[in-house]
Amino acid sequence: MSPAIYLPVISASIFNKYKDGWWNSQAPFKYPFAFASYYFHKSHRRLREEFKFDSDVTLYSDSGGYAVFTQGASIDPYDLADWYNTAGIDLAMQLDFPPYTDARKSQVVEFEKRLEITARSSKILIERVKSSIGLYATIHGVNPKQYDVWRSTMELVSDRWFGWAVGVAPINNPDAVLRIIRYLESFKNEKPVHFFELGDAVCFLLIARYANKRNLLVTSDSSYAVISARVGRSYLTILSRQPVSIGPRVEDAFKNPISCLCPVCTRYGAEKVREDPELINLHNTYLLIWRYQFLNSISTEKVEAIKQLFPEAVSYVRQLDAILEKRGGLLSYV
Q1: Could you write out the DSSP letters of every residue in 176-233?
Q2: Quick one: 131 exposed, middle or buried, by C-beta within 10 A (0-12, 13-18, 19+)?
Q3: What is the Cα–Cα distance from 217 to 214, expressed in whole angstroms?
Q4: CB atoms within 10 A of CB 77
Q5: CB–CB of 265/273 below 8 Å?
Q6: Which of 163, 297, 312, 318 is spaced 20 to 30 A from 39 at the CA atom?
Q7: Degrees to nearest 5, angle at CA 119 with 117 and 122
C-alpha cells in the first residue's frame, strides 16, 4: 500500500525566529515533507540550505501558476527552472497557465491560448531543470474532453513527467475529488498524483483510499495552517473538527497552559504559542499532520468501520469504491 502524503506549506514570511520548522531534527517535531512555492519563496535561492532542511526531508514545490491568473503575476520560466535547481527541490510542478476566469474554475477562458503557453514554458523547464528533479504536469479543464486535450498535449511535450498535478474546486468538495479520480481511472493512470490545496477531511480521506487501493504516490498540499495562524488567528485542536479562534482573551479557550500537549506547546508553552503567529502555525501544522495521518490509517478500513468513525464520508467512499472496482486490480484489504 502507498499512503497519501500531506504536504504542509512553508509560509514565506514565517520562521524568522523558528527556522527549524518541522523539517529539522532540532525542531519541536520532525515531518519529512514540506511544500514551497517559487512565487512566494523565490528570494531564497538556496532554500534548502537557508531553512536548514535535513537531507532526508523531501521538498516539493510549485511554480505559482495559480497566482498568474488570480493575481496577475508574471513568472519567468527560465528563472523558475534556475530556482528549482538551486533551491534544493526534489519534486516540482510545471509552470502552468490555468484556463479559468476565477479560482472556483467555474468557467474556462482562452483554453487553447493558455494551453499553448503552458506547453512552451514546459519545454523550457524540461530542458533546464536537473534530471534528478521529478516534474509534474498539470491537467486542466472542466470536463473529460478538455482534460484529455490538456493531458495529451503535455504528453506530446515530453515523456519525462514524473506525475500529474490536479486541482479541485471548491477545494472542500468531495464530488470534485471523485470527478478527478473518475477521470484518472478512465485512462488507467499509473503515475503519482498531486492534488493542489485540498481543504476538507473527507476529501483527504478519499485521496488516501485512492492512494492505498491503487498503490500510488498521492500527495496534497495545504496552506490552511498558515492562513489560520496569520489571518484567522485560529488554533486547531485534536478534539474539535473545527478550528477554535483565539480571539479576545475573554473568549480564549486556551488560557490553561496545559490545555495542549502537542510538541510545540510542550516546548514553548501554550501561553507563548497562542501569542505568536509563527508558533500557532507550527502548532496547527502538527495538528493537521496528526489528523491526516489518522485519516490515512482509517482509509483502509471497511465501509462499516468508516461509518462509525466518519459517517459523513460513507456515501463518498462507496462512490469511490464503485469507480475503482470498474477497473479492477485493486488491493484486497476491503
Answers
A1: HHHHHHHHHHHTT--S-EEEES---HHHHHHHHHHHHHHT--EEEEE-HHHHIIIII-
A2: exposed
A3: 9
A4: 21
A5: yes
A6: 163
A7: 110
Tell me the residue type at 36. A
Q: Which residue matches cell numbers 519534486? A: 91
Q: Is 253 helix (H, G, I), strand (E, B) or coil?
A: coil
8 A C-beta contact, residue 234 and residue 210: no
- pLDDT in single tens digits along all 334 residues of the chain: 678 999 999 987 655 677 789 999 999 999 999 999 998 899 999 999 999 999 999 999 998 766 666 666 788 999 999 999 999 999 999 999 889 887 777 788 899 999 999 999 999 999 999 999 999 999 999 999 999 999 999 999 999 999 999 988 877 899 999 999 999 999 999 999 999 988 688 999 999 999 999 999 999 998 877 877 776 566 666 544 454 444 333 344 444 444 678 899 889 987 788 778 888 888 889 988 988 999 999 999 999 999 998 899 999 999 999 999 987 655 544 4
Omega of the bond leading into 170 within 30 degrees of 0 (cis): yes
Residue type, 151: R
The SS3 of residue 123 is helix
Radius of gyration of the chain (CA): 20
Residue 160: DSSP 8-state:
-
Nine-digit cell string for 123 = 519545454
Crossing angle for the helix pair 111-128 and 77-86, to the nearest 10 degrees: 40
CB–CB of 218/330 below 8 Å? no
Domains of the chain (ranges; CATH) run 4-227+289-327 (3.20.20.105)
